[in-house]
Structure formats: C-alpha cells, structure tokens
Amino acid sequence: MKNGDYYYLLARKNIKKYRTQANLSQSDLAEKTGFTYQYIRDLESIKLTRRPRLDTLVIIANALNIDIKQLLEE
Q1: C-alpha distance from residue 59 to each of 34, 37, 49 (Å)
Q2: What is the pLDDT of residue 46?
Q3: Which residues are CB-neighbours of 64 under 8 A, at least 6 positions away?
Q4: Contacts of 16 by beta carbon, 8 Å cutoff, 6+ apart
Q5: Measuring CA to CA, how many Å separate 69 from each of 27, 49, 61, 66?
Q6: What integer pLDDT is reported at residue 68 of this predicted model?
Q7: 26-33 vs 54-63: helix crossing angle, rounded to 10
Q8: Nearest alpha carbon to residue 62 among 10, 20, 19
Q9: Burial, 49: exposed, middle or buried (Cβ in 10 Å; 0-12, 13-18, 19+)?
Q10: Contact 14, 72 (CB under 8 A)
Q11: Are 41 and 33 in contact (CB under 8 A)?
C-alpha cells in the first residue's frame, strides 16, 4: 500500500501532464482556478512544502476538464 505522500506527488506530476495536454500555460491554469501563477508553479515543481488540499485538487481537475481520479492514476 502506498502512503499519502506518494499520491500527492503523483497528483502534482499529473497536474503538469494534463495542463500541457490541454495546451495551457501555468498562468492560464492559475487564471482558470483563481490560484496564483506562483502557487501553480510551486505545486508542479514540488517546491510547495505543504500538501495541496483535496478541494484544491478538485478545483484544478475541474479547470483541466478531467475527473479528479485522473490526478491520482499512475
């Protein structure tokens, strides 16, 4: 069984994957979610020291037009 950190790291990797597939820049995603560009940048680069909240992942998944489950898939 994988621990929680594994899934948060996976979600961060998948955010970048689905953002680039949607041809969105980090600034575009920030605008669509209401988060700052720096937050999106730090989230994708794993510079953010705290885990993103579940509701944050839901907002990002909605902005990317994907199901939140896709952020947690390998």
Answers
A1: 9, 15, 20
A2: 73
A3: 15, 18, 19, 22, 24, 29
A4: 44
A5: 23, 23, 9, 8
A6: 95
A7: 110
A8: 19
A9: exposed
A10: yes
A11: no
pLDDT for 23-74, tens place per residue? 999 999 999 999 999 999 999 987 767 788 999 999 999 999 999 999 999 8
Per-residue CA distances from 73 to 6, 15, 69 (Å): 11, 11, 7
DSSP 8-22: HHHHHHHHHHHHHHT
Burial of 65 (0-12, 13-18, 19+ CB in 10 A): exposed
Q: Which amino acid is at 73?
A: E
Residue type for 26, please? Q
